[in-house]
Amino acid sequence: MMKFFKFCLLITFSNLLFAVETYKIDSEHSFANWKIRHIVSKTSGSIPDISGQIIINRDDLSASSVNAELNLLSINSSHLKRDDHIQEKKFLDTANFSKIYFKSTRIDSKDNQTGTIYGELTMHGVTKSIQFPFTLLGFGPDPWGGYRMGVEGHTKIKASDYGYSWGLKENASLGDDIEINLLIEGIRQ
Questions:
Q1: Residue 172 pLDDT > 60, yes or no?
Q2: What is the pTM of this model?
């Protein structure tokens, strides 16, 4: 009977240990892909330099959190001259505001697989509340002895909400709406 009790205690303790997991965002395998209107079409690219931490409670995603930092100096539109141009003061002003920060405030999920992340996005010195739907893509071991998780999220923000005025001008070459698709891979710590 005592062995059975110890076994039950061990299983319960193991479940508590794995209920909350901390993942470091893998900057080599995570991307914030963006699209913005350019005249009559769209242009796109990514911000591949993402760092941060995801704390996941797999049993209750509402008890999870996300903190992330995106480095605008890594912006990549597959065109070096354009990348340099959009970092200038009249567009992203990366000399003064090179980082974007996100901190979750709440996570809603009915099925522990999909849901909505609410949080504060700081860009260009301005902080605004945003939300975006997400899907957990999976959890599993990697070929190097680690353990990973994947998540995808989508949102749209207005550049003008963050003090960028390029999309508000008449006959502007760039739009005000920025579509963002997040592809995040984390390594369990």
A1: yes
A2: 0.87
